[in-house]
Fold:
Amino acid sequence: MANTTFHLWFPNIFEFKGGIQTYSAFLLEAIQNIYPSDRYEVFLKHDKSPSADFASLAPTQFHCTGVVPSGLRTPTFAAQLLGWGFWQRPNLVISTHLNFSIVGQQLQRWAGIPYWAVAHGVDAWDIQRPDLQQALHHADRILAVSGYTRDRLLQEQNLDPAKVSVLPNTFDTERFQIAPKPQYLLERHKLTIEQPIILTVARLDSSEKYKGHDQILQAMPAIRREIPHVHYILVGKGNDRPRIEKLINELNLNDCVTLAGFIPDAELCDYYNLCDVFAMPSKGEGFGIVYLEALACGKPTLGGNQDGAVDALCHGELGVLVNPDDVDAIAQALMQILTGIYPHPILYQPQTLREEVIARFGFEQFQKTLAELMQTK
Structure:
């Protein structure tokens, strides 16, 4: 693939950091490592400008549509993708949001340009739009972030299994490290170093109740009967906070639950190290990068057994999988983990957890898998 031009279509990577944004940034870094001499045109729907401190590994041009009013942004972005595509005739288009693949199909149809699309989670499940279904069937390859998402796509959309591959999420292994409980966070939240702490990191958005924090709150009365000094910290902001506060009041949990709200990125690793178990018994995750981050900090980790957490926790090899609708099962699992009697020794081996999650999901493995996929395109 010498002298190749890549067009990469991302929602954004600079001004907001979510799962798709993180995946997109790592994808850009990995493909430029693989093909450092090629040309990259990166199209960003929601970013207004590239970050001043962003260092490209290869010749890279960013095209930002975030300055366009939101009502006009989608047609403007689509027109930009089509215009540049027809003009430059890239060798390959890779889109990290499925909706963009509709434009990819037009370029493929009229100019013969191949396109790949990335399927994350809810964006890829139960797709009903005929134009998007058609775009998926015509894609040259679909990269699913988990086996769970791949299986759902194949089952629901009747796609050719040969062109749907798994390229799991990755994470910053240097940023997330094992460390003692940070004293400043213990003081901030008026906690003692001996207190058992449960942590969830999730957006508190009304559309993301599937994260499972409600079930943990409902499990807390039973947990604190066995572990009186247990404390639950829920990190994240969103429009669902008033409802969650009401639930905390109804359950009389005000003295053992902390809603930490928004935290700066620089504090995230410290929060993982503050906890004794990371728990997010979700049922709507395409993968869940937070599980990897917690494991890299050596923390016992609990997820749901009905979504992409199954992939992130390697079908239970690296953590605990529970029915996300079973409050009693969540309570029992958390009590066993916190009291050191859960029958899975790796949970209590921080360095082993870290080494295993890096070996399976570190950036080197991500790049290696991508390189293999590019060779078989």
Observations:
- The first strand starts at residue 5 and ends at 10.
